[in-house]
Specification:
The protein is built from ten helices and ten strands. The protein is α/β, with parallel strands linked by helices. The two termini are 27 Å apart. 29% of the residues are buried.
Length: 329
């Protein structure tokens, strides 16, 4: 069992005081030097603890005044309701809505909330452009030759190094480079299904996955989904014998936003292993985490090679690069 770091213990103690309203909105926290003496730790430990609390919007710094319990610390919003599945014989297409969403991408007057993409002001454009120029110059062929079908070996090796969350469970040989994450999902579906097969998805689900299922001639079976716990595993268990694959976003789900608890991920992997049903795991949002440790994907718990782990740089670097990957198992 992982030992809790000292700064995390301090942050947790203060967070519990805020949640119990012992510390209330607007209350001032001890200064960094006062907290250092209070907890008998280093200044850096206190700074890390306060940074942890700030990342969760529990406290806020005020210039020349110190740290205070933030206005959002006690904000409690109602959770979305779990969707009730309604059977219908009527066939409807969402293509018009999809076209409408993508039709706004080039419109600079629109603040884009329909797609999960980083704002241009977040991107270090000068550094990215410099890196691209350097990468082209460093290539003997100026990046004009074909790469291996599996993708650049160097890129796959770097992704394998970067995927520290899997703790060395994948190498460059386990990865296939794709044109973004949706292409990874599409290829995953093609690999394990045939036309008219059923695929289990969350409800609501990202419309790109619905579109991929439609294009491949597959049938989507929606699974009730909780806004905190994720897919209803009891409901999933009932339909697993009927489906050829599952396609889920387990970390910071789009559009629900939940992070599936680790115990639920373990149970999900146990279920798909028992029924021998592959899981296409879209972990594209996993790197957008706050806190000390990136959440584990289901792939981490996969011993049977049934989880197809998909990711890309679209959310953490630049969507236009269209660099994605899949560890297909």
């Amino acid at each position: 069992m992982k030992t809790e770091a000292l700064y995390q213990k301090i942050a947790r103690t203060i967070a519990e005081q805020i949640q119990s309203e012992t510390l209330q909105q607007g209350d001032k926290l001890p200064s960094i030097r006062s907290a250092q003496k209070l907890y008998n730790v280093s200044i850096n430990t206190v700074k890390l603890a306060y940074l942890e609390l700030e990342s969760h919007s529990l406290i806020e710094p005020r210039p020349k005044s110190g740290y205070f319990v933030s206005q959002t610390s006690q904000r409690k919003l109602a959770l979305p309701s779990v969707t009730r599945i309604k059977a219908t014989e009527k066939k409807e297409t969402a293509q018009d809505l999809v076209d409408k969403v993508f039709g706004t991408i080039a419109n600079e007057d629109v603040t884009q909330f329909a797609l999960g993409i980083p704002g241009k002001n977040f991107l270090p454009l000068a550094k990215l452009n410099k890196a691209i120029i350097k990468a082209v110059k460093d290539r003997d062929d100026s990046a004009t030759s074909y790469e291996p079908v599996q993708g650049s070996e160097h890129l796959r090796r770097e992704i394998a190094k970067w995927a520290l969350v899997l703790e060395g469970k994948i190498t460059e040989e386990d990865l296939v480079i794709t044109s973004g994450a949706i292409n990874a999902i599409y290829n995953g579906l093609m690999a394990v299904t045939k036309p008219d097969d059923a695929v289990a998805i969350e409800t609501p689900a990202y419309f790109g996955v619905l579109r991929a299922i439609q294009l491949l001639g597959l049938r989507a079976i929606e699974v009730p989904t909780h806004p905190v716990l994720g897919v209803d595993l009891d409901a999933l268990k009932e339909i697993l014998p009927q489906v050829a694959a599952c396609c889920f976003v387990t970390n910071f789900n789009n559009p629900m936003g939940f992070q599936m608890p680790d115990e639920n991920k373990k149970e999900l992997v146990r279920l798909i292993t028992h029924y021998n049903v592959p899981l296409i795991e879209d972990d594209i949002y996993g790197n957008l985490f706050f806190g000390a440790e990136r959440p584990k994907p289901c792939k981490y718990y996969d011993e049977a090679g049934l989880v197809m782990w998909c990711g890309s740089v679209s959310k953490s670097m630049a969507p236009g690069y269209r660099v994605g990957w899949v560890a297909p198992g």
